[in-house]
Amino acid sequence: IHTGPCMSGIVGTKSLRFCLFGDTMNTAARMEQKGTAACVHTTQDVVDLVPGERWEKLAKMEVKGKGSMQTYLLRLPAMANEEFEGGDNIASVVASVSKREYENPFFLQSKDDDGSDRLEEVSSAERLDVGSGPSLYQDIQPVSDAVYAEHTKWFGLCFKKLYVERAFLDGQARQGKIIVFVGYGLFAFVLAFDYLYAYLYGVVIGSICGDPAQLEICYVTVGPSSETIAEAIAAWSDLPALEKYQYLSGVSLLSLTPGVAAIIAGILPIGCFLHWFTHQYKYVKRKYWATLLVIVVNFVLATLMILNLFLFVANPLKAQKAFSVLMVLGIILLFFSGTSCVPYVCWWILLSILYYALMVPAFLKYQSLLQNGSASIVLIIASNDFIQFSLTIFWMGIFLVVGSYLNDKTSRKRFLLRVLMVKQQNQIIREKSRNERMQRHFLENILPANVVEKLQRRQLRKQRGLRMTLKKSFKSSISQRHFGVGMLYADLVGFTSFCKQVDPFSVMVFLNDLFEVFDGLCDDFNVYKVETVGDCYVATVGVVTGEQTVQDVSITDSMPKTSTASRTNAKDLVSFAKAMVRGSRQVKKPVLDTPALLRVGLHTGSCISGIIGTRNFKFSLLGDDVTIAAAMEKTGVPDCIHASEDIVKLVPEERWEKCKVH
Asked: What is the enclosing helix (H) or strand (E) of 126?
């Protein structure tokens, strides 16, 4: 242990790690190297800050880069029942750690997540109790008028963007594709009911007007046709079909001629078929054509019935009643078509113009007759009906237009709310995907891609309830045994004395510049950077990159053939080491202005890769061959590559110099 100032940061561009730099770190490392097993080795600075421990003063020793230093030793008794400050003894802590689940470090968890399934511990009453406190679920607020005005034009009757308007109309058409058939059915029912009304009307009039004593009353209330109606009803069974229809048509409100009635009877099933075909035909992508088709059918039918009134109905009083039926029929089709407010307005304006065009001349004629003294009860009733129906059609149109406008605006607001919600959801999904890509890219700069993939798969299994209870099972799934791996350790010459002469920030900047050079060479030679420890650079070929021979750690009875893979990986590693030495010569040390010289050690063999510990996870390589590669670096020569005999056998074409046996 040592204490003092340091600089923290990340150096390089691959296998990123949070590191500390400075003379303090080097001194702490020397304390570990010079220490005694099962003891704590500290400097004078630590003893001055923590004088209460049982420090054992040692003789002054020479420390590399520091000279003679006074150090201290703290010996700990090997007692299993020794307690920590919290009251737990060592044995219980070790036991709890051994049972701890190996959690995924790359996904956030709540502080209350203790590794158990919280849902199983919550009672049904707790899960259903949402009445206390603010509710977690809040009603979706409707679109405000200000937001609605931003997206619409023409008093909110149309969206500003054409594709949004098309989408709205298409959605309305799809939602109302079934109910349109109800509208066609009601239209046909009203037409049929008009004829039923004519027949029942004739039966009632016939029963009353058949009595000679009631003829005067019938003439006043019904008109001159009362006798004709009574005679037709009396001889109904003997009349031919055409005369029966002519009678019903004459008495009915619409008074449709046989030709017009036949055309209408043909248009209704054709309209139903075209509506069904438009929704079923896959090549018609925009289904709002079905709504437009209903509107066209409605106006065609209205045109036929209005022409029938103008051409074949001479009695203005009867035409006046027919207009009320026409308005009802038009409203039925428009209402069940799910159309917007505009067709309602057009329908009201068209009927109003035609009504006044037909009835105003008749009304003026009645007024002229009344002024000339030709007053009769029929003229008085006709004039009164005209005035009343004029007011009725006006106010009905107003209510119809206002109601359809408000309904259309409400539908558009609901649609806009869905659009804004989908847009917000898509934005959230895009941001989440972008964050996941950034997270994965960042993780793959810390850990190998296959390890990141395994961690993510485990997180998915955990979310689905497939929780792993033993850390051993997960560690074994992450760990792998590799064969034919080339391993490299590179260390800066004179780094300890350099740190003593230069401030920590300059050290960090220098290491970053140097390691960026090495990182830039990795891809060129299929090299994977494992880690940096201070000034030590560790890299491999055959673990993540290069030709890989992998075996599960649970298999120990077979050894794969790796001669080809070892030779290829060794060649790439030697080429990388040569490029490192040349590249380090181009980087100057700050203040000293001397080139950075390396000691490089190489070895090839097998190792085990995996993650160690439960905090600040690090992808590590373990094995005897890894230790040999580190020893090659420690016993190497500055500005040279120190390789084992296994490397030389695989890459004999290099100009190797045989060293003495260490």
From this structure: helix 124-128
> Could you identify the residue written with the tokens 């003294």?
373
- Number of Cα atoms under 13 Å in the Cβ half of residue 24: 16
Residues 445-470: tens digit of each pLDDT:
778 888 888 777 777 776 665 544 44
| Residue at token pair 């950077």 | 529
Q: How far apart are CA 302 and CA 264, in angstroms?
A: 10
Q: Which of 27, 15, 39, 73 is nearest to 449 (CA)?
A: 15
Token look-up 């004999």 returns: 652
Query: In 3D, which of 188, 170, 167 has the Cα closest to residue 333?
Result: 188
**C-alpha–C-alpha distance, residues 420 and 164, integer Å:** 11
Phi/psi of residue 187, nearest 5 degrees: -60, -45
Which tokens is 519 given? 């990182």
DSSP state of 213: G
Question: What mean pLDDT value characterizes the chain?
Answer: 79
Nearest partner of 46 among 65, 23, 72, 21, judged by Cα: 72
Contacts by 214-217, CB closer than 8 A, 24 or more apart: none
CA–CA gap between residue 546 and residue 274 (Å, rounded): 66
Q: Kindly state the greatest CA–CA separation across the chain.
A: 147
Residue 332 scores a pLDDT above 70? yes
Burial of 506 from C-beta contacts in 10 A (0-12 / 13-18 / 19+)? middle
In Å, what is the CA distance from 16 to each residue of 515, 529, 617?
A: 11, 10, 12
Q: Which two tokens stand for residue 630?
A: 């580190």
Q: State phi, psi for 152 to the nearest 5 degrees.
A: -125, 170
Question: Any residues with CB less than 8 A from the CB of 6 and at least 6 apart, and which?
Answer: 20, 21, 22, 24, 25, 504
What would the pLDDT profile of 628-659 be if each residue is shown by its tens digit? 999 999 999 999 999 999 999 999 999 999 88
Query: Are β-strands 640-643 and 598-612 bridged in parallel, bridged antiparallel, or unpaired?
Result: parallel
Question: What is the distance between the alpha carbons of residues 480 and 471, in angstroms, rounded to a whole number?
Answer: 16
CA of residue 294 relative to chain centroid, distance: 37
Task: Give the predicted TM-score (pTM) of the model.
Answer: 0.57
Distant-in-sequence, close-in-space partners of 601: CB < 8 Å, separation ≥ 6: 488, 489, 490, 629, 630, 631, 632, 633, 634, 635, 636, 641, 642, 643
Question: Which residue's structure tokens are 């003893």?
Answer: 47
Alpha-helix runs per DSSP H in 338-448: 341-371, 377-444
623 torsion bin: left (phi>0), alpha (psi -120 to 50), beta (else): left
Asked whether 391 and 114 are in contact (CB, 8 A), the reply is no
**Cα dihedral 367, 368, 372, 374 in deg (nearest 10):** -60
Helical (H) or strand (E) element with 610:
strand 598-612
- Over the range 206-240, which residues count as b (16 or more CB within 10 Å of their CB) and which as e? bebbbeeeeeeebbeebeebbbbbbebbeeeeeee
The answer to whether 337 and 176 have CB atoms below 8 angstroms apart is: yes
Work out whether the CA dihedral 341, 342, 343, 347 comes out positive or negative: positive
Provide the terminal-to-terminal Cα distance of the chain, rounded to the nearest Å.
31
